[in-house]
Amino acid sequence: MSLLQEHGPDAMVVAGGTDLFPNMKRRQFEPRVLVGLRGVRELGGIRGSAREGMTLGALATLTQVSLHPEILTHYPALARAADLVSTPQLRNMGTIGGNVCLDTRCNYYNQSYAWRKAIGFCMKKDGDICLVAPGSPRCVAVSSSDTAPVLWSLGARVRLVGPDGERVIPLPALYRDDGIQYLAKAPEEIVAEIALPPVDGLRATYWKLRRRGSFDFPVLGVAVALRREGEVCREARIVLGAVASQPREAVEAERLLAGERLTPELIDRVAEVAARPSKPLDNTDLVYYYRKRMTRVYVARALRELAGLPVGDWPTAMAGRNHANDEEAR
Amino acid sequence: MGPVETPPRRAEELAVIGKRLPKVDAWGKVIGETKYADDLILPRMAHARLLRARHPHARIKAIDTSRARALPGVLAVITGADFPPVKFGILPVSQDEEALSTEKVRYVGDAVAAVAAVDEETAERATELIEVEYEPLPPIMSIEEALAEGTVRIQEYGDGPNIHKLVSLEFGDVEEGFREADLIREDLFYFEGSNHLPMEQHAAVARWDPDGKLTLWSSTQTPHYVHRTLAKVLELPMSHVRVIATPVGGGFGGKSDPFSHELVVARLAQLTGRPVKCTLTREEVFYAHRGRHPVLMWVKTGVTRDGTIQAMHFRSILDGGAYGSYGVASTFYTGALQTVTYKVPRYKFEGCRVFTNKPPCGPKRGHGTPQPRYAIEVHLDKIAEALGLDPAEMRRRQVVEPFSKTANHLTITTCGLEECIDRVVEASGWREKHRRLPPGRGVGFAASSYITGAGLAIYWNEMPHTGVIVKIDRGGGVAAFCGSIDIGQGSDSVLASVVAEVLGILPEDIRVVTADTDLTPVDLGSYSSRVTLMMGNAAKEAAEKLRGLLLDAAAKKLEVSPAGLVARGRRVYLRDDPERGMSFAEAAQLAEAAYGTLAAAGSYRPPRRGGKFKGAGVGPTPAYSYTACVAEVAVDPETGEVRPLEIWIAHDGGRALNPLLVEGQVEGSVYMGLGEALMEEQIFRKGLHKIPSMLEYKSPTTLETPEIRTILVETNDPEGPFGAKEAGQVPLLPLIPAIANAVYDAVGVRVDEIPITPEKVLKGLDQKGKGQEPRVGPERFPRVSFPEPIRVESAFGQPADLSLKRE
Ligand SMILES: Cc1cc2nc3c(=O)[nH]c(=O)nc-3n(C[C@H](O)[C@H](O)[C@H](O)COP(=O)(O)OP(=O)(O)OC[C@H]3O[C@@H](n4cnc5c(N)ncnc54)[C@H](O)[C@@H]3O)c2cc1C
Ligand code: SF4
Predict the structure, then answer these.
(1) How much is the ipTM here?
(2) Cα Rg of chain A, angstroms
(3) Taking the model in full, what pTM does it have?
């Protein structure tokens, strides 16, 4: 803590390093001091149960999260999101804390120093304009965490520890829609743990759009969590990942679900409304209008999955891979 | 003694050939012991980094290296001025490259200066301290821009301001053929460029010995051409340059040119008096490139009612990038092989290669032919549909005749394509599936052919294309020396297997010494699928000479005739009385006593069988290989995603010297073809490569690779060692159009543009929904002033003349 305080913005914490070290190599991050968290025992471990709620230490690896029996059974959407991150090797090193703090991404920014110099530096590092949206006053790099939308949909809270003590905030309050200052916390505050509320009938799922069944960051993530009484939706959360600089909740669409039965017609309407806040730009893989269009398809499929409706019998890349990976994890 | 005079022995007589044996170098790779170029560490070795251009097109006004030189740890900084003013390039007609650019930079990534330092980081920092003053010039980033631009030129030579090469050839009267046709169809296609994506990045280490001689270790597919280039550019006698190709961790054509970093480490080693290494980053591999040319294509074919081709007219425009590389050959290859798959009695080809401010394109697996193969196989699929014919059957009926000539004077020897077609049709259940699967599921068919080694060397000469020396020592150990380089395709294993078969020993008894210009006879390199056939023939010749000596010596001792002896199972014995004989080592000792040191050389030069017209040099080969493929896919109508479900692929590569290696080549080709068909794109934005990383340049993983059913159809080609042809390239070709045709079968959308990305499929589905023609692809073919064609009489249907052999 004192190191972080002493060096201020010159210092960064490192957990698994799977995001930080590649970024340092490309000189997107140039910390003078690195504070390793791995020695801090208190930050590890997964505790609790579905009935009382669970606590994930920030250093819990994505592999641990994806294989934890209680999470697999009662928070399967989170297990799935963790399991869909990158590759087995990276999941063995990458932590849940690092995943929620993951840097925003942009294909003008995730490039070598020489490449960025050649095209002209942008405001996220070394420059002062945005190359994706030249008129934009702010950076629009993309929030690319797989677990953040799911944690958000599950109502997770985050315990932050800083030099002045600690505080617990709802996970959405950790984020800001700004590609540079995407975390609403002080640089010297660390994420100590993430708390999941009791399941209490909440059922959730996560759908991830990416080109390949491994390696790739999400270019769209859809987390949906529903609490139903009988056939009727009591509570609904739809959170979109990779469509803005922070996860984005489709509040209007959620309202359409409240007190309603999940019919195919309603699902289509909800999906259409949910896609509205999705405003992808041309800075990731796959063309942006395609990603926008897929928002509707993926929200509909996520809702159909939860409603027990067929999600289409297309053994396609995405659907096939999501399930294949689940099986692999078990 | 040539291959025709010694027809391959019957399969059952062979002890090594045809067996599923592991590669001779497999163990070292599996346990991580293989030393690649980047693994080399020499005492006092320095590290080099290149400064690369940050403008796509600019004049260099001044370079100031003083700050870089002043950085502690820097040993030398060089620019183009530190080299003689000599240009180079792989083809004699395109000598347009410099070790380091002196006047102009022509793409983002062009090398401008270089630093040697005590470590890589210091060298990298130093490159950033080099100040280059540029005068930016307008960048030319597409085929259309290159054709339209009349004043700004990328190169100062070629067939037009930014046209590198124009070709126009007509074999027979195509107009006459179109008049005889019942159906004439024209189609436009585009094929995006792609990188080879070898796992190993290029790397080179140079060292100057105290006697003033240079040694270069490099990850290269063509040590001989690198040898020539080093001597030329550094103005050294070839005898003072030694090139050793290190085991290549994947090449696919991307390591077939001499490269800037190879020349740079040589010069830096000379200046610093230390060994110098340079390993490219992954980003730099995308700049070194020489990958698949983006090609825009137009094809017109006239057929009779039963689908029989009467005439074909094919046009291509290749986006060559900034330098020549193999581009002239690539241009010819987009046209030359159209005639060796199906019967095309009259054929016209017009080709054009333009320069653009992008990394140079060159040969990638299939060199210049996957693009036209894709176009033609989809085009024929459309024709079959228009005529209400089964696309596989329509093609099967017009497979080329074995031992015949094509319209453009290419000689076909064996052809197993009919059987390949039958086998994939059968195995895949094609007849039950095509046009009969439920919506969203489809099957597609395509076939292809490829050369087994180019008929001509890259530079004109009368010498052999390859040579092998075999030496036997007194303990019975055998060493085989050849300039060939194993790039993972298994050429070391082929060399050992051929020699082992002839001498009656096992591959593991043989030490192969390859790819060292001081120690091994020249082999032109691992490109154009030439090594198995050419090196194999040379190895066979050398080994047979020695076997002759061994049998003679053994016969004398046993007091029998040598004709009654065989060498097999590490022994030499009487065929009719196997108990009577001796060990291989004993026979070797007797032979050495009788004839002196046991060493023999073999060499090979392909037959000269091409036409006599200008441009006839590209296309001829000792033998053509064939493949047929059926792909089954699922297409998600809501997301446009295409998921390959199963691939059936039948391959005629002549006799499979080692079926395991052939299957490996087929499967690797399928995987690589899938990447090109569905995702890979070397694309640019604001003058820069958009995604020069392995994460963002999308290439499939094992999870995207479906079940591959490989079927080997063995012909016994008189040209190849033990009847072998090739396996490394042809299986890639049919995969791409088979996928495109399967997508059409699944959802009725024609994607006439590679790659077939989800958004293109969705666009086609939208058009279909609106009642428009469901087709996504290029809309127009730009005007190109092709010259009057060279008119040559069609040689279609003439019998092959195999007497035209190596002299
Ligand atoms: C090829 C590749 C593919 C990837 N694919 C995906 C993907 O598909 N989906 C995905 O979500 N991610 C992906 N990642 C990113 C990364 O691997 C994961 O997000 C991982 O969970 C990051 O965790 P880490 O522990 O390695 O973080 P680190 O790299 O250690 O840290 C990441 C960031 O978080 C900060 N940080 C870490 N821990 C804390 C903490 N406790 N408190 C405060 N700040 C902290 C660090 O300072 C740093 O800024 C990929 C990375 C690579 C290299
Ligand atoms: S969104 Fe704009 S400012 Fe942000 S990283 Fe990309 S180019 Fe830079």
Answers:
(1) 0.94
(2) 19
(3) 0.96
